Amino acid sequence: MNVTRATFDEVMVPNYNPASMVPVRGEGSRVWDQNGAEYVDFAGGIAVNVLGHCHPELVKALEEQGRKLWHLSNVFTNEPAMRLAKKLTDATFADRVYFANSGAESNEAALKLARRYALDKFGEDKNQIIAFNKGFHGRTFFTVTVGGQAAYSDGFGPKPGAIDHCDYNDLAAFEALISDKTCAVMMEPLQGEGGIISPEPEFVKGVRALCDKHNALLIFDEVQSGVGRTGHLYAYMDLGVTPDIMTSAKALGGGFPIGAMLTTAKIAESLKPGTHGSTYGGNPLACAVAEKVLDIVNNETVLKGVCEKEELFRSLLNDINKKYPFFEEVRGKGLLLGCALNEKFHGKARDFLNAATQEKLMCLVAGANVVRFAPSLVISEEDIREGMARFERAVAAVVNAD
């Protein structure tokens, strides 16, 4: 069957508006479309393709598991799931893991666990959840309400209750909001969709201390920041703060759908048999691929390389900005970076994205004022330099057209 971009408009629900080109093949950090045009990928499937496209070791893991077991249901366990869970607990603060299919599902599980734990330990009055403006935690009705962007949760009827928000990095506002009725605080240790905003050290430590004071669980949403993205296996490891619950997805499967919620043995006890579940969560195919991803990424050489590549990205971006001033600062950490546009180009992030696509470069936005990059963690220097040459041409096109 011959399909084109026009086919999308004929058969798909219009909640997406994809680019005019249709990718058909990828290798490493290069992608080819239906017409054979080659693109450099600085988007990484929105921080998902952590090892690029069709990494040979991931392909091998998928093929080998594909000849053994695909699906069992959680009436049974399976070896890849147990191995992956053991590697995750060995590498993090956590004792227990729950597998799902996505970041939203992992966050849904984390929020349900926090509510159930508070009910078990403190009673039904302890139910408030605090999150942060501009945060993003998924698209289920619960997670999108906890997310701090009303535009995503408005228009669907009554929202889940006992959820409050304050500004990220505003410790005084947070302290005014939290109380003994707070059961959980959910935050990204590096805000992604909200504009690539790093936490101030005193803020994140203050949040942890106030959670301890009020017996509230601290949930870190590491769906975008986790699995090597910041140069550490998980972002919390460089913040001097340990969460009670952490969620992971996106890069965890290197492109294969998987999510995980990690927590301590004590807290995990509240999800007794029957309290929560997932048909596909922990399936052998996803876990076999994710296990290989973790083996490759949780390596000193790879993680150090992320920091080295960050410096190259920043240096090349600054060179472009000297010629064509378009951003105020480069935000973020590791290979989750964002160019915050200067006042002249406010609201035009998508113009830069569209121009980049025209120059055969795939990148992202984070709101209307930030151009975002989330490439493969093992992208080559050659691909970084070629991608930046294309980005410079895109920037020139936007700046000169203004």
TrEMBL record:
<keyword id="KW-0663">Pyridoxal phosphate</keyword>
<comment type="similarity">
    <text>Belongs to the class-III pyridoxal-phosphate-dependent aminotransferase family. ArgD subfamily.</text>
</comment>
<feature type="binding site">
    <location>
        <begin position="103"/>
        <end position="104"/>
    </location>
    <ligand>
        <name>pyridoxal 5'-phosphate</name>
    </ligand>
</feature>
<comment type="pathway">
    <text>Amino-acid biosynthesis; L-arginine biosynthesis; N(2)-acetyl-L-ornithine from L-glutamate: step 4/4.</text>
</comment>
<keyword id="KW-0028">Amino-acid biosynthesis</keyword>
<feature type="binding site">
    <location>
        <position position="279"/>
    </location>
    <ligand>
        <name>pyridoxal 5'-phosphate</name>
    </ligand>
</feature>
<dbReference type="InterPro" id="IPR015424">
    <property type="entry name" value="PyrdxlP-dep_Trfase"/>
</dbReference>
<comment type="subunit">
    <text>Homodimer.</text>
</comment>
<dbReference type="GO" id="GO:0008483">
    <property type="term" value="F:transaminase activity"/>
</dbReference>
<keyword id="KW-0963">Cytoplasm</keyword>
<dbReference type="InterPro" id="IPR015421">
    <property type="entry name" value="PyrdxlP-dep_Trfase_major"/>
</dbReference>
<dbReference type="Pfam" id="PF00202">
    <property type="entry name" value="Aminotran_3"/>
</dbReference>
<feature type="binding site">
    <location>
        <position position="278"/>
    </location>
    <ligand>
        <name>N(2)-acetyl-L-ornithine</name>
    </ligand>
</feature>
<dbReference type="InterPro" id="IPR004636">
    <property type="entry name" value="AcOrn/SuccOrn_fam"/>
</dbReference>
<dbReference type="InterPro" id="IPR017652">
    <property type="entry name" value="Ac/SucOrn_transaminase_bac"/>
</dbReference>
<dbReference type="InterPro" id="IPR050103">
    <property type="entry name" value="Class-III_PLP-dep_AT"/>
</dbReference>
<dbReference type="InterPro" id="IPR015422">
    <property type="entry name" value="PyrdxlP-dep_Trfase_small"/>
</dbReference>
<feature type="modified residue" description="N6-(pyridoxal phosphate)lysine">
    <location>
        <position position="250"/>
    </location>
</feature>
<feature type="binding site">
    <location>
        <begin position="221"/>
        <end position="224"/>
    </location>
    <ligand>
        <name>pyridoxal 5'-phosphate</name>
    </ligand>
</feature>
<keyword id="KW-0032">Aminotransferase</keyword>
<feature type="binding site">
    <location>
        <position position="139"/>
    </location>
    <ligand>
        <name>N(2)-acetyl-L-ornithine</name>
    </ligand>
</feature>
<feature type="binding site">
    <location>
        <position position="136"/>
    </location>
    <ligand>
        <name>pyridoxal 5'-phosphate</name>
    </ligand>
</feature>
<protein>
    <recommendedName>
        <fullName>Acetylornithine aminotransferase</fullName>
        <ecNumber>2.6.1.11</ecNumber>
    </recommendedName>
</protein>
<dbReference type="InterPro" id="IPR005814">
    <property type="entry name" value="Aminotrans_3"/>
</dbReference>
<keyword id="KW-0808">Transferase</keyword>
<dbReference type="InterPro" id="IPR049704">
    <property type="entry name" value="Aminotrans_3_PPA_site"/>
</dbReference>
<keyword id="KW-0055">Arginine biosynthesis</keyword>
